[in-house]
Structures are given as C-alpha cells and as structure tokens.
C-alpha cells in the first residue's frame, strides 16, 4: 500500500516552474539532480518542458502511470489537483505548501476537503 510513496516508479511535480527561484523549480531540480531513476513529469499548464522534462497541463493528462505526486501549488488549487490525481490513479501525494490548518478556519476547511478527496480515491498523503 505504501509502495507508491516509498518506491515510486514515476513522479509528477505539480506546480513545476521554469523560474529557478520558485519552489516548483527547486523540487523538480532536486529530483533530477540527486539521481531519481524513475519517470519524471512536470505539471504546469503554461509550459511544455521544464528542465528537460515533458510538461503537462494536469496530472490526469499524463499519458503514463503516475505513482507519486509532489504538490507545490497554492492551497486553493490542491483539492482540484487531488481530484485529478484520483482520476489518474496516483497512489500517494506529498503536499509541500502552507495555508491549511495553521491558517485558521478557512484553511482547516480546505484541509478537510483535501483529505476527504484523498480518502475517496485511496491516495496516501504526506504533508
């Protein structure tokens, strides 16, 4: 059940960026730089390629299997991303952003919705 998290054969970085100062660039760059051997996909609706990796507008538009999604988009988009991940059959997600429980009632409500969406699709979540 945790194979997608601890031994993914493919990773999608949702919120990948071509701008070196952005977290989406740093995460994607580190995955590449430190030798991840599986398939890597960048997800950004405004790019076709980032750091030599094919880029797709949404997770559910990646033509191959995706085991793990690393999510670095603003909190208001995470529920939609999790829905796309569920549609795609992604097994695990790592959410690397703030603005949920620690941000008050609105953030708690968003977090609850993200977790309900993940549970509905059987996605394991870290973050």
Structure report:
The protein is α/β, with parallel strands linked by helices and 127 residues long. Helices cover 34% and strands 21% of the residues. It is built from four helices and seven strands. It has helices at 3-6, 23-33, 78-88, 105-121, and strands at 10-14, 39-43, 49-50, 53-56, 68-71, 92-95, 124-126. Strands 3-4-2-1-5-6-7 form a seven-stranded mixed β-sheet, with helices on both faces. Strand 6, helix 4 and strand 7 form a beta-alpha-beta unit. The longest helix is centred in the last third of the chain and has 17 residues, at 105-121. The protein starts with a helix and ends with a strand. 35% of the residues are buried.
| Helix-strand category | alpha/beta
Radius of gyration: 14 Å
- Any low-confidence stretches, pLDDT <50, length ≥5? none
Number of β-strand runs: 7
Elements, N to C (H/E): HEHEEEEHEHE
Terminus-to-terminus distance: 18 Å
Provide mean pLDDT, rounded. 91
Beta-strand fraction estimate? 15-25%
Summarize this entry quickly.
This protein is of the alpha/beta class. 34% of the residues lie in helices and 21% in strands.
């Amino acid at each position: 059940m945790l194979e997608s998290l601890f031994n993914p054969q493919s990773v999608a970085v949702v919120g990948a960026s071509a701008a070196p100062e952005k977290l989406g660039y740093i995460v994607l760059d580190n995955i590449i730089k430190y030798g991840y051997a599986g398939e890597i996909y960048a997800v950004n609706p405004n790019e076709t390629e980032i750091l030599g990796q094919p880029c797709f507008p949404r997770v559910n538009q990646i033509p191959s299997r995706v085991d793990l999604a690393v999510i670095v988009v603003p909190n208001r988009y995470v529920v939609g991303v999790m829905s796309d991940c569920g549609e795609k059959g992604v097994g695990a997600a790592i959410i690397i952003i703030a603005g949920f429980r620690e941000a008050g009632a609105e953030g708690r409500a968003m977090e609850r919705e993200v977790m309900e969406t993940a549970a509905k699709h059987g996605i394991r979540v870290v973050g």
